[in-house]
Amino acid sequence: MKLAETDERIKTAAQEKVRVELLEEQLEKLRQEMVSPPPESDGYVLALSKEIETLKIENLSLRNDIETLKSKLESVENTDERVVVLEKECSGLESSVKDLESKLLVSQEDVSKLSSLKTECSDLWTKVESLQLLLDRATKQAEQAVLVLQQNQDFKSRVEKIEESLKEANVYKESSEKIQQYNELMQDKVELLEERLEKSDAEIFSYVQLYQESIKEFQETLERLKEESNRKEPRDEPVDDMPWDYWSRLLLTVDGWLLEKKIGSDDAESLREMVWKKDRRIHDTYIDVKDKSERDAISAFLKLVSSPTSQGLYVVHIAAEMAPVAKVGGLGDVVAGLGKALQRRGHLVEIILPKYDCMQYDRVRDLRALDTVVESYFDGKLYKNKIWIGTVEGLPVHFIEPQHPSKFFWRGQFYGEKDDFKRFSYFSRAALELLLQSGKKPDIIHCHDWQTAFVAPLYWDLYAPKGLDSARICFTCHNFEYQGTSSASDLGSCGLDVNQLNRPDRMQDHSSGDRVNPVKGAIIFSNIVTTVSPTYAQEVRTSEGGKGLHSTLNSNSKKFIGILNGIDTDSWNPATDPFLKAQFNARDLQGKEENKYALRKQLGLSSAESRRPLVGCITRLVPQKGVHLIRHAIYRALELGGQFVLLGSSPVPHIQREFEGIEQQFKSHDHVRLLLKYDEALSHSIYAASDMFIIPSIFEPCGLTQMIAMRYGSIPIARKTGGLNDSVFDIDDDTIPTQFQNGFAFQTADEQGLNYALERAFNHYKKDEEKWMRLMEKVMSIDFSWASSATQYEELYTRSVAKARASPNRT
Ligand SMILES: Nc1ncnc2c1ncn2[C@@H]1O[C@H](COP(=O)(O)OP(=O)(O)O)[C@@H](O)[C@H]1O
After folding, report:
1. CB of 538 closer than 6 angstroms to any ligand 1 atom
2. Is there an atom of ligand 1 within 6 Å of 566 CB?
3. Which atom in ligand 1 lies closest to the alpha carbon of residue 723?
4. 3-state secondary structure at position 147
5. Rounded to whole angstroms, how far apart are CA atoms 530 and 478?
6. pLDDT attached to residue 481
7. Reduced to 3 states, what is the DSSP secondary structure of residue 684?
């Protein structure tokens, strides 16, 4: 703009210049005329000289103007020069910007390389850490074995000494009555010591086994890691680096095609086998056809089909619960935990569940309904069932949604409906129908508790004759308190023959000739019967503990065994638990303190003294759990100077009301809080925050909370019953080897019994902080994973399948 303005001014100046020149011409003319004036008058000359004067003045002013313009022109020229300089600078800057941009691009590439290096590095760290853990575990077990060996030596030399004294005593035996008594006493002692010797031999053996297993595991992992780092995987190696979710999704895709009749059952079988073996070819094909049409995908998959034979077992769990999607209690944890552990050991595991409306759908991945229905029989008619598939915790799950007018699983709750017997006998039959219609050939069908106990008689009476005959049936009873008895006529709805089954040696309940008992049926009709801990397996074989089934169990004792449950150490891991304020582990307990502080703050409890012991309790509030002792523990812990947090709810109205009363009483108390609800996230925070954990059960088939508590460094105070007796060992009981001592146990289910254990726990906590820390570290390092229980199940399955194959005609 400025340049335009200056241009304009230059033009005006040029015009002015022309005008000045014209005027100067005129002036010259006039001067000429003045020198030789015309003959006209003097007046004219005067006028002319006046005009000349005026012109002179005008001329002067114009000259001034020209000067001013000239100087302005100079300044404009200066500005132009500056503009040129600035333009040069600008282009210089632009080229350096370009330079910088290219440098930025290079450094961005470097950053992305760096981040992938970082992930690789952190992967390697995790592997190294897990190796370190394995090594630590193996070393610990070796140390424990050495300890037990030493004790054993000790016992041996003591026994030898006693035997010597016994010999000596024998010499004087006849001579004195006193010596006789002494002898008897010694005999008793010898027996006791021999017993302990035997026990410790067994312990040593189990430790040596454990140690060997750990070493083997360690070496295997080491080998695998070595191989991984030394080679690119050849084509015939299985694909090990894809998550279980991926394989389960693939499996369900094949199942879907089979059920939708898009592929035949033999092809489906072969494809499933390949998925099961994590075959690289099926993986590569899947990647190739991922974005293609379903038809193309199917034909690419079918090209792969060959019939390899497999080493592993094909196990189908039919259950009413599975954590975390449909969990009421321990059953849900077992189905998921055992399923995952078996899957890791190379078996093909599938789960069949009802499709409840109140499930946690956000924990199911890739849920979709199949484009087909499965019809199943009930009350004399055929009903359609919609089949949904999805993966839960990496396991493939089929969900059955009955199209029955009673809307069996649209009740807003899992159990507690008037027609539970109908709901679950319907489901049991529909699940078998699904297996039959999809042409599956499982090796093991594993059913759980009374809800799916119907599977056992249905299988042998109806489905084996229809061709679903490849399987052995395993039944696990998680709690003999719940047997699901009903009037005999109800049994007919799912197609079972009431006349055949309502007999004392079959499903008839011991209480009445007109009632049937599904649990009894499953005990009789299954090939394998298990319960969830060795002690409970003993207890239920007595008339006090068997809830009417002790004689059935005793007459089927050959196939009945107790296997202690494990816990899912992935979900229950304080080192990675996303629900916690701070993660922690046995080597770094700082986070535990932080969780205690955070929970106290969250619940409005006093944080004044960090060393005030916090007692936790997470439970269903039912008589089995010793509710009167839980109530007593709240008051006693308070008297002893502790804090108490209870998380639980009750399906029993009067118990729920009673605890609501206590909740009100302590509503804004500094040291006690009751939370009468089910809350998964809060349960994690309580395990992590508490110093002690109370489980005063009247009976406890297995119990998971004591194991979870220990994994989070909370010391259990438990009654010696069932699985508690198999997992909590008193630290003041010197008949128990020190390496096993891990908590406080009491025998009698009364207030004195509980006080005894609670008070000792408080004393230990207050007396020696350092010792308590060591105890926490110890309990956190105990291996409660499913690994060893899954191995026991695997052995049972394998033995049963082998037996069936050896004599195919037996059932
Ligand atoms: N109110 C609750 N909120 C959250 N989790 C709970 C609650 N009550 C029980 N649990 C969980 O349920 C499981 C209980 O298993 P277990 O000890 O075998 O008892 P049971 O199966 O007899 O209920 C544990 O995982 C425990 O954390």
Report:
1. no
2. no
3. 18
4. helix
5. 9
6. 95
7. helix
pLDDT digits (tens, 9 = 90+) for 56-76: 888 888 888 888 888 888 887
Measure the CA–CA gap between 507 and 514, rounded to whole angstroms.
Answer: 10
Interface predicted TM-score of the whole assembly (ipTM), two decimals: 0.99
Q: Is the CB of 337 under 6 A from ligand 1?
A: no
Q: How many CB atoms are located within 10 Å of the residue 125 CB? A: 10
Which residues lie below 8 Å from residue 271, measured CB to CB, with a gap of 6+? 254, 263, 282, 301, 304, 305
pLDDT digits (tens, 9 = 90+) for 508-554: 999 999 999 999 999 999 999 999 999 999 999 999 999 999 999 99
Q: How many CA atoms lie within 13 A of 358 on its CB side?
A: 13
647 lines ligand 1 (CB under 6 A): yes
Q: Which of 683, 694, 728, 786 maximizes ligand 1 atoms within 8 Å of its Cβ, making it the mutation to test the pocket? A: 683
CA 720 to chain centre: 30
Asked whether 648 lines ligand 1 (CB < 6 A), one says yes
- Do residues 708 and 567 touch, judged by C-beta distance below 8 A? yes
Q: Who contacts 700 (Cβ-Cβ below 8 Å, separation ≥6)?
A: 536, 624, 625, 719, 721, 722, 723, 724
pLDDT tens per residue across span 233-246: 445 578 888 888 88
Q: Phi then psi for 323, rounded to 5 degrees?
A: -75, 145
Cβ–Cβ contacts within 10 Å for residue 416, how many?
9
- Residue 459 is inside which H or E element, if any? none
Residues 727-775: tens digit of each pLDDT: 999 999 999 999 999 999 999 999 999 999 999 999 999 999 999 999 9
> pTM for this one?
0.66
Q: What are phi and psi of 243, to 5 degrees?
A: -70, 160
Task: Provide the β-strand partners of residue 382.
Answer: 377
Task: Categorise residue 380: left if φ over 0, alpha if ψ from -120 to 50, beta otherwise.
Answer: left
Tens digits of residue pLDDT in 209-266? 666 666 666 666 667 666 655 554 445 578 888 888 888 888 898 888 888 888 888 7
For ligand 1, the distance from its centroid to the CA atom of residue 587, given in whole angstroms, is 27
Query: Do residues 741 and 775 lie in contact, with contact meaning Cβ atoms separated by under 8 Å?
Result: no
What is residue 46's predicted lDDT score, i.e. its pLDDT?
Answer: 81
pLDDT at 794 over 90: yes
CA 342/CA 358 separation, integer angstroms: 28
Q: Which of 619, 655, 695 to mutate to test the pocket of ligand 1 (most atoms within 8 A of CB)?
A: 619
Please name every residue paired with 398 in a beta bridge, in sequence order, or none if there are none: 352, 389
Q: What residues does 387 pair with on adjacent strands?
A: 400
Tell me, using a 6 A CB cutoff, whether residue 565 lines ligand 1. Answer: no
DSSP string covering 536-571: HHHHTTSTTTSTT-HHHHHHTGGGEEE------TTT
